[in-house]
Amino acid sequence: MGHLTDHRWMGAALALAGRGIGRTAPNPNVGCILVRDGRVIGRGWTQPGGRPHAEAMALAEAGESACGATAYVTLEPCAHVSTRGPACTDLLIAAGVAHIVAAMGDPDPRTNGQGFDRARAAGIAVTTGICESEARAMIAGFLTRRAKERPFVTLKLATSLDGRIARPDGTSRWITGPQARAHTHLERSRHEAILVGRGTLQADSPRLDVRLPGLETRSPRRILLSRTSEPGWETISSPHAITHLAGVDRLMVEGGAQTASAFLAADLVDRLLLYRAPILIGEGRAALGDIGLAALADAHGRWRLRDSRMLGIDRMEVYERA
Questions:
Q1: Residue 174 among known ligand-binding residues
Q2: How many domains does the chain have?
Q3: H/E element holding 57?
Q4: Does 303 carry a binding-site annotation?
């Protein structure tokens, strides 16, 4: 198939992978589409908890039609057999797939090129590197956990134009409008866990759940940054303790200012999710405190704008590590 066609089908596979984001740890959220004679004959995405894998789901849907098909997968098919299921590379070989088009290789040492090698040895054509940057962004949590032994961290801030998160008395409901708040709930659904500090807990008693119709079951685990425990909450004593959060590859930090500053000072933030309302508060509570910045020059070049859009009257911006 042509280069443009490959990108088109891989885009569809990436959309399927997005269905599992924040739901598949410790496995990556992968998407797979099986195409034969220009028609989709099977679709799959990694299911909650990590199994079945995307390829297994797509092959089950395609049945015997998979013979001679092209498999578009957002990550190299796994090459290891586990107690939870067979290796996807072996399943693709057994089904008679003719061509594997993959966005990227799997850094897991149990696969790491072996899936591609085994497929080629079985006579399957293999193409790699299609939409690789998009695929890496899709499984940022999985990649960060393996490279840095911690979750991928998103810091969410909702501020006024002058960088305030509350009035001097602590009043903060609502700075942003309903569309921005709904988007926050969508973002929560794409993380395994969400974290706040004790100040936010005491001031707001936040539920931190997902209240979008149809996504209520995707509410993340609630983590409290505090030196003392709290009934009904998982508690960690420092930002670096996120390394010990089992089953969490994507963590959302929602506040408050002291907690946000602590994560930035510890250099643990990978993504900034900034909502700005078209209001001025003046004297009030700042979004951030001391983040350990020694010189203004050190502040430059750290963040790259990845997305910007209007949500009602508010502006949403996403920044990632440069």
A1: yes
A2: 2
A3: helix 54-62
A4: no
